[in-house]
Amino acid sequence: MNVQMLEDLMKAFVASQFGDVKKRTAGVALEVVAFSFIGLAIAFLALSCFLWLSTFMEMWLAALTVSALVFGISGVLILVGRSMMQRKTIQQESDITSAIEALTSLTSGKVKADGENPTPEETNATIFGVALAAGVILGRAFKR
């Protein structure tokens, strides 16, 4: 494996893992604003349901009904989100195991495709690349 090719591969790998920080920061800011507007819309929806129900029943009963409905929807969303997170954790553990197995096979010092043994420079570059990739993979996998 050519050293320059390995360096280019590692640069591409690191760029794919971390991306452009400015774009990601702007994206997070836009998501926060969007979720704030969604929360505001939900609050107005609950208020309008309360006002509509209060025309048919007493105000305290309308408030209780709307609150019970909101708590019920929140409980369902919590349960669905929890099950989705558990499935992702299991998938991450299997991805980590397969990635570590692939990385250890790279450092075993196997013969190159043309039948020659790798040079010490290529071996050191491969070990460096594998260590960097393993650090990034494990760091992203165990991030909480």
Automatic annotation (TrEMBL):
Alphabetic keyword roster: Membrane, Transmembrane, Transmembrane helix
Chain segments annotated as transmembrane: 32-53, 59-80
Pfam families: Phage_holin_3_6
InterPro entries xrefs: Phage_holin_3_6 (IPR009937)
Name recorded for this polypeptide: Putative Holin-X, holin superfamily III
Organism: Cognatiyoonia sediminum
UniProt lineage: Bacteria, Pseudomonadati, Pseudomonadota, Alphaproteobacteria, Rhodobacterales
